[in-house]
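Task card 7
Instruction: Convert sequence to structure tokens.
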Amino acid sequence: MTENPITRRTALTIGGASATAIALAACTPSGGSAPSSSASGSATAPSTSAAPSAEASAPAGGGTEIAKLADIPVGGSIDAKLNGAPILVSQPTAGTVVAFSAICTHQGCIVAAAGKEFDCPCHNSSYDAATGEVLGGPAPKPLPKVAVSISGDAVIAS
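Output:
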């Protein structure tokens, strides 16, 4: 009986395929599924400026407070949370506030606020902070909008 030994070419092909599978597995996000939100909206009110990230709380009038207007610089953006999910909030012009899911549409990494754009640290996708549209990178579609309004000095998610 004649045996067919594994050739060097076959061994290298199998090894390369295994290495590729491991590399691709390392690129997948560790959180599982990304939250989906497709509500749209923007809000307007008087402007002020500052910086850091915000944590959501429930205001008396309904909805969820996600930030203070003063914490969002005009022409800038901040990271925030809505019911534990990461979101991005920007104030493209004085008194106009928009928000988006912070889950990258490429592979589900968490996108960070970076002034007039949002940047994904995983594969360098970037999004416009005013529209959520893709500016560059492998992201296939814009970030989903999160409906927001302004109530007094607070930014409220509906």
